[in-house]
Amino acid sequence: MSIAALTGRKILVTGVTGWVAGPLAESLASAGNTVYGAARFNDPAQRQPWHNKGVQTVSIDLENGRLDEVPADLDLVLHFAVAKSNNFAEAFAANAHGSADLMETAAQRSDKLTFFHCSSTAVYEPKHGVPRQETDLLGDSHRPMPGMPTYSISKIAGEVLVQHTAKRLGVPTVIARLNVPYGDTYGWMSFHLMMMERNIAIPVHVDQPTDYTPIHAVDIARSIPYLLSLAGTPAGIVNWGGDQIVSIEDWCGEMGRLTGLTPAFAPTTATIASIVPDVSKLRDLGFSTTIDWREGIRRQIATMRPELLKS
Fold first, then answer.
1. What is the residue extent of each domain of the chain?
2. Which of 38, 112, 207, 283 has a CA that sits 20 to 30 A from residue 75's CA?
3. Left (φ > 0), alpha (ψ -120 to 50) or beta: where does 209 sit?
4. Average pLDDT in the 173-180 region?
């Protein structure tokens, strides 16, 4: 199964100017779908590059309920838009109320809608060294992270409202809790590389290693049809990540090996603790990742900072 399994569909991808949704929208457009990419698009000049990639643009504002450009007769909404605000009212308006409003608006305009909601493993209460299952305790994992006091709670609220709206409207829905996405042109690792260049110590949690399950953009696209197979009412919930457990310490060490730079670490409680999702549910569908994390790191550096590669 691959992204090519999705073809001839009318698809709305929200948050298209973001890391994950943009490459996915391009992949879907190239696979023969009619793809609408949604963002605020406050600057009209932002739209043309997407049109050049075969993605039609629509302007929406989830926080303020501006959804008049949501197309009719959609087959699928892939909802990736997210607000990272320090203000709880703004975060709830965009990530929770806005998500429910988007589903309701799209459902009113289509009688064949399936809804995909990208959540986050940030919704879990961390438990070091123990993979989190979909039924495990939720918590405010991102509160210690500077600048992200609302993220976990507003993502939990978003899941609750999406579940409720899916049940109320009878819209087949899946909620996918994404761990650490990265690709050839984006990812948390790229920021760590910049810190290594500047001899800035990289925050890691005091409970080391700071483990995650990163998933490359290639495998993100490949996994979408598998995830959609779990859409239903009530909404299905599934962890979304790569097959390999990798720590910040691991990937910074690999970047050091490839570039000759030396990572320094700053253990602290003022950062996100390790969250490793149990991905058994996704694997049981027959999905497995194809991009080894070391290959992914090399590809990212070769694309974004080729002059740094030493080996």
1. 3-183+215-243+276-289
2. 283
3. beta
4. 98
